[in-house]
Write a structure and sequence with these properties.
By secondary structure, the chain is an alpha/beta fold. The chain folds into two domains: about 5-70 and about 195-275, Nucleotidyltransferase, domain 5; about 90-185, no CATH class. It contains nine helices and eight strands. It has helices at about 50-55, 90-100, 110-115, 150-155, 175-185, 210-215, 230-240, 255-270, 280-285, and strands at about 5-10, 25-30, 35-40, 65-70, 125, 130, 195, 205-210. It has a six-stranded mixed beta sheet. Helix 2 packs across helix 5 (about 175-185) and helix 6 (about 210-215) crosses helix 8 (about 255-270). It is globular. About 45% of the residues are buried. This is DUF429 domain-containing protein.
Length: about 300
C-alpha cells in the first residue's frame, strides 16, 4: 500500500482503571527519521478514550495504524464465536457491537460485564480457577484454548499466541482484545479497519498487529521479543533500517514494542503479499479478521 506515509504502532492494554501503563503510542514517517513516542495531553499515561480520540481526530490522512490486540474471537473452528448460543453474532462487527452494548456501563472501555455475563462466561478462562465449560471445544486441537486461523499462522512464524478467550496469565491478550473491540466498534463508518472494511484510496487505516512479529523481523527471537534497554531497542531498529532513538523518555517494554512496530510497519506496508494472506478468505476476513504480517 504505497499511499501510506505515516506509521503508528500502539501497544494496547486491557487493564482496569482510567489510565494504563501498558499503552504506548509511537509514530514514524517516510522521511526516514527514527520513530518517536507520542504522549497524551497533560498526562504520563494514555487512557483508552484518549487513544480513541487520537484515532478519530488526530491522525494524518495517510496514516497506517497497527494496534496490538485481537480484533475478533475464534469463529472458523466451530462456525460461531459462541457455539451453541442462539444469539451468537454472525460476524466481527456484530461481535463488537454486542460487547459494547453489554459493557455500556463499564467505564474506560472496560469489558468486565461481558466476561461475567452468564451467556458468555462459560466460553472464557477467568481468574480464580474459573475455566468455563466451553473454553475448550470437544476434540479441540489446541490445549490452550480456541485459536483463530491467524493465530495458527502466528505460531508458524515462531510466535507464541494465546487464545483470546483466555483472560489469565502474563501472556494473555483476551482483556486487551475485548476492550479493543469496544474501541473498534466506535470507529465504524469513520475509519476503516482491515480486513473487515474495504480499503479506500485515501484516509487512515487501522489494523491488528502482533508486536512479536515485528520483533522477529527485527532479528529478535520469539522468546526474547520484549526489549527494555536502549541498546536492544536500537539494534532492532537498525535491523529494520531505522536510525536509533536518542530521546528515550520512559523506556519500558511497551514503549519498545510501539517504537519497533512503527518502524516495522514503515517497511511492511509496502509488501503486497502481507495484504493478501493466502488463508484469509472473505468469510475469515469478516469474522475472525487477520493479523497484519502473519502468513
Amino acid at each position: 500500500m504505497a499511499r501510506f506515509r505515516h506509521f503508528i504502532g500502539i501497544d494496547w492494554s486491557g487493564a482496569a482503571g482510567p489510565r494504563q501503563k501498558g499503552i504506548a503510542v509511537a509514530l514514524c514517517s517516510l522521511d526516514g527519521a527514527a520513530p518517536r513516542l507520542l504522549e497524551p495531553p497533560g498526562h504520563r499515561h494514555w487512557s483508552r478514550m484518549e487513544v480513541l480520540d487520537l484515532l478519530l481526530h488526530g491522525l494524518p490522512s495517510d496514516a497506517l495504524v497497527g494496534m496490538d490486540l485481537g480484533t475478533a474471537l475464534p469463529f472458523a473452528d466451530a462456525g460461531a464465536f459462541f457455539p451453541g448460543l442462539p444469539s451468537s453474532p454472525a460476524d466481527a462487527r456484530a461481535l463488537w457491537a454486542l460487547i459494547d452494548a453489554v459493557c455500556a456501563d463499564d467505564p474506560h472501555l472496560g469489558a468486565a460485564s461481558f466476561v461475567d455475563h452468564p451467556d458468555f462466561a462459560p466460553y472464557f478462562r477467568r481468574h480464580g480457577g474459573r475455566e468455563g465449560a466451553l473454553f475448550h471445544l470437544p476434540g479441540a486441537a489446541h490445549r490452550q484454548g480456541r485459536m483463530r486461523l491467524t493465530e495458527i499462522a502466528q505460531a508458524r512464524a515462531g510466535c507464541r499466541p494465546t487464545s483470546n478467550f483466555n483472560l489469565v496469565g502474563a501472556a494473555q491478550v483476551g482483556k486487551s482484545s475485548l476492550t479493543g473491540m469496544r474501541l473498534l466498534h466506535r470507529l465504524a463508518g469513520r475509519i476503516p479497519v482491515w480486513p473487515f472494511d474495504p480499503l479506500a484510496g485515501s484516509g487512515p487505516v487501522v489494523l491488528e498487529i502482533y508486536t512479536a512479529l515485528a520483533a522477529i523481523a527485527a532479528g529478535r527471537r520469539a522468546g526474547a521479543a520484549k526489549m527494555t534497554s536502549a541498546d536492544a531497542l536500537n539494534a532492532a531498529l537498525a535491523a529494520l533500517g531505522s536510525p536509533p532513538v536518542t530521546a528515550m523518555g520512559q523506556l519500558d517494554d511497551h514503549a519498545c514494542d510501539a517504537l519497533v512496530t512503527a518502524a516495522w510497519l514503515r517497511r511492511a506496508a509496502f509488501c503486497d503479499e502481507l495484504w493478501c494472506p493466502q488463508e484469509m478468505t472473505r468469510e475469515i476476513a469478516l469474522t475472525e479478521g487477520w493479523t497484519f504480517g502473519a502468513r
